[in-house]
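User: My collaborator and I are trying to settle a disagreement about how two of our proteins should look. Neither of us wants to argue from intuition anymore, so we agreed to look at predicted structures for both before our next call. Could you fold the first one, then the second, and keep them clearly separated?

Assistant: That sounds like a sensible way to settle it. I'll keep them separate. The first protein:
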Amino acid sequence: MSTVANDTVARVFYTGKFEDGEIFDTNQGGEPLTFLVGHRQMISGFEEELMGASIGDERTFKLPPDRAYGERDENMFQVVDKSVFGTEMPIEVGMSSYAQTEGGGMTMFTITKIDGDQVTVDFNHVMAGKTLEFSVEVVDVREATKDEVAHGHVHGPGGVQHEVSKADSCGPGCGCN
């Protein structure tokens, strides 16, 4: 029987809660979450807690910030001119959006303060600084294929669906070409 380890594909049902018991995410009643273990698809603490689990195992664990999304970093706050937001959409405190990074990627931020023409934005992950509790049931584990390991993601059901004509590459946006 397979157990959760690096380079395996795990399928799980889970519920994630904050310390106060508020559920922030769950897939109970839906499809299992499918991921390639050891390839940075999940927060590290989540994978670490599932290592060695077998099909049918249920685990409940708490992840402090350093094993989840990290501590809040005051250096991740930035004050920008209100004009960078344009006029298409009104902005307000608590609103989240995305900004393009210097490398061309996208990163999420949250508006924390508006003072005249100055807007303070927070680039910390929204769950940074929070302890998270997970209840997880492992419903399937299998060895990853060589292609899945090479590409860094799961193929087939629950993963990336490749077109037959692109069998040897994932196509644009995949990152494994």
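The second protein, kept apart from the first:
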Amino acid sequence: DSAKAFYAALFGWKLEDMSSTEDMVYTIAKVGDREVAGMMATPPEAAGKPPSWGAYVTVDDVDASAAKATELGGNVLVGPQDIPKVGRFCVIQDPQGAVVSMITYSEECVNSAD
């Protein structure tokens, strides 16, 4: 919650919790009506690692893109999984070691942005 307060004050963001599961609350940051960022708490499996921001590349099919990354010599670090009301994402590592996330937004999320 302290990170939410910090970034909301720094960038003038309005924050909205989009999903809440036992494991995660995903928060969308908005400027006006435009979604500009998202954030979540550090998951338990990342305990001991410093908090960070990650870039997401939008793809048509996260599952197919994760499989292709593996075929091309990359590694899937976080397998494809759903973010309720947002979409489906995964985290990969390219053959050189760089990490990037991919996301396919749900129809619900895309339609709410219109």
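Some points you might bring to the call about the second protein. The first strand starts at residue 14 and ends at 20. Residues 74 and 95 are 5 Å apart (CA to CA).
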